[in-house]
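Quick entry between incubations.
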Amino acid sequence: MYKILLINVDELWLKGKNRYLYFKTLKGHVKDVLKSYHSGKMEFANVFQRLVVKSDTAFNEETLEAVRIIPGIHSINLAFQVEKDIDKALEESIKAFKAMPHQNFTFKVHTTRTDKTFPTTSMEVNRYLGHHLLENFPQLKVDVHKPDLWLEVKILPDSIYVSTKKLKGIGGQPLGQTGHLVTMLSGGLDSPVASYLMSKRGCKQTFVFFYSYPFVGEEVLEKIKALTSIISKYQRGCKLYVIPFGEFQKSITKEVYEEYRTVIFRKYMIDCSNLLAERVKAQGILTGDVIGQVSSQTIGNIALLDQISSRPIFRPLVGFNKAEIIELSKEIGTYETSIIPHDDACSLFAPKNPIIRPDKKYWDKFNEQFPHRESLINCLDKAMVYEVNLRGEINPLEAKD
Amino acid sequence: MLYLDYAATAPVRLKALEVLKEKFTSDFANPSSAHKLGTKVKKEIEQIRMGFIKSLNAFNYHFIFTSSATESNNMIIKGLDYAPGDKVLISFGDHPSVLAPAKTLEKQGVEIVSITRYDDGSVDEKKLIDSLNGQVKLIVLTHVNNLSGNYIDIVALAKKIKEKAPTVFIHVDAVQGFGKYPLDLSGGEVDSITVSAHKIGGPKGISGLYILKDKEINPLLDGGGQEFGLRSGTLAGPLMFSFYEAYKEISLDQTKHLDFVKSLYDKVKLALEDNIPGIIFPFLSGGPYILTMVIPGIPSDVLVRHLEMADIFVASSSACSSKVKGFNPTFEALGIEEKYHKNVIRVSFSELVKFSEIDFFIETILEILNDLNFLKKK
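Done. Structure below.
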């Protein structure tokens, strides 16, 4: 039913001189998403700090949701456009009120007059519309504090836009403006949430999964693909690298002390993620680590791992409690998929007593003795690469070399 | 490829495939049609129906075709008339297509009672017979259990049951043993028997049910009245002919095949017993077509995937329930301790498997287990 979107941008005020670039990036992203979801004709215009999208056909729910979760969007007003005539705005408002599912709500009129040449001030428009709406709908009441319905009237240079419905975006920064990360996915609850938080901060991501087949089954890979499909909607198309790791892990168990297995596997995954970052020109690594959650996530182990990584490792969840992560995962839609039980290679390989305070000497010596750079390059070369489009559809690509 | 999961299903035998192709394209007519094409197919179907009957001396039985063993089992278990308080005896270690329909009877006030088993999964016959009384309406027996391979001489057992309780209905799920073990129904001790095509190299989508002619059951499907009114639906002629072709091939040299498969079974069992410390063969009365083992400390899924990398295919549990992780109620019923439920491997054979392939299997699994030794927690 809505053919017009007024897209309000988040955090643009931060940007000073770069504002133009930020706006352009966001606009490009919105265009891409709309073009892959919406079949109607569309016009895009910048009107002051807003992006106005007009179409000849109404946007459906799925499309609106896809746009709503684009990083950098503060909110979207679903609007009607009228001539710059206050009575036309009234007429449209009456229509919108009549279309409400029930007729006993409270409302508030909120006008913003961006076009200062328009003769009536915002306050006057509020009063005029409020007065006449009450006359037309005598059973309704105005509530300026907690109204059921906000009637937003935006007076822009070209037209007046009337909106009774506003979608709250996820905010943050336009995607791709802040950098590129390699995101390590594990299939659990944490890494998809970590990815989301960094998408919100505008980070483009390339996803990597270390696939321990034949120690885990294909259902784990299916789960990873399903999760990638969900979190990719916060990206602008992306890639997933599935790196065969089972045979490599098996060979490592013969070289390393049992209690160091987990942290050493972790190290090689980070090494390999760095090699991937080099290829895809990413500047950092992203993980779902939470302090203390498992033994490899103690400060001691994290400190060791940070030393061997040639790129910064971002861990946006370090300070989160499990309950907070679960809440976020429900919000972004990954919870139901994350909790599907699966074989876990980590627990299979897990030593009886994993090391909590690793011995720096052993660690350094081990790393010097077994760099395994060739093996890791080999793993990366054998990766299955998937491309995820703007609709979250995931398809295999030929492996790159 | 080395396929050792014949208890799950088998590839279609070449002759059976030929028949399938020919019948789908030439003798495709509806056997209910009055014209020459139809009557020809009908006549041929009656011939193979008689073939199935003759081969088991089942002259007191109807042989009807169904779509699956699941359908055959459902047809009997749900098709009898029950009164509240009736009892159905069943083994909780049996196939879901037996257990699930029995479970639905509980809503009608029917009591489902588990047949007691020994620790090795075999049926305690004495307890079974002692438990018989007027309230027992139906006993469901499994000829060869799909997980343990345990074999029951169902005719002998049915005879003992009927001596004590002549009116009880005895249904047998013979899917795993049909065509592989001798079976003689001339005494009519068993009331109905489920058999299936795809386990013996016939096509999927066709199965059968032997049922004593004087027994009444309520059909699951009503319609054109085919199959003596017990199972309406256009007869799947090509599938039926192909089923029969596969059956002829496997049952022709039944004893020879059984002896050969026994030698495969013995060879594998001996080699693994000698070379894998701690290996357990939980089912002493397991038959030669199915060899089930527990390898403590080695997750069966992991072993199955390592074998599949070597192009060898075995099962970690029944194909129908292999997604269930951890505790497995069927293993529990068969007497396997819960701590071993994730360590069960089933290897199942066919007379088509070669000795050289078995050597390859033994060599490969031992190599893999040697490699996976680190998984055993100290």
